[in-house]
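ENTRY TYPE: protein
WANTED: fold as tokens:
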Amino acid sequence: MDNDITTEPDEAVEQVDTEAPETSGDETEDDTFPREVVEKLRQENGKYRQRAQRADDLAHRLHTELVRATGRLADPSDLEFDEDHLADPDKLAGAVDELLTVKPHLASRRPVGDIGQGQHGNGGGDFSLLGMLKERT
């Protein structure tokens, strides 16, 4: 047996010019802006990003307070933020109901109504130490 390996010559590979075409300086200058304009745009953009971040923070705080106002959760941050809850109170109530169905241990444990503690009524009038001593003597 003949162990000669024959290979066919590779197909011709086209040479591609990878160098960028030469352009005159006028074309690149038309695509650039003066430094002052770019800095002004970046500052303006930064202000808008800060406003958007502040709006997001306020929306999260509002969501937390709306959940707290329901009084149904021990910790209002347990319900994840959803922008739909801000506009539609029914969706907020439904989300709280669903969360409490899945995780009932998150419900508020604050007692409501008369639980037999604290001051009741007038308490029998004013207290007088002199009157108490006169009663006992």
In short: The radius of gyration is 39 Å. The chain has a mean pLDDT of 80. Residues 32-108 form one domain. Residues 35-70 form the longest helix (36 residues).
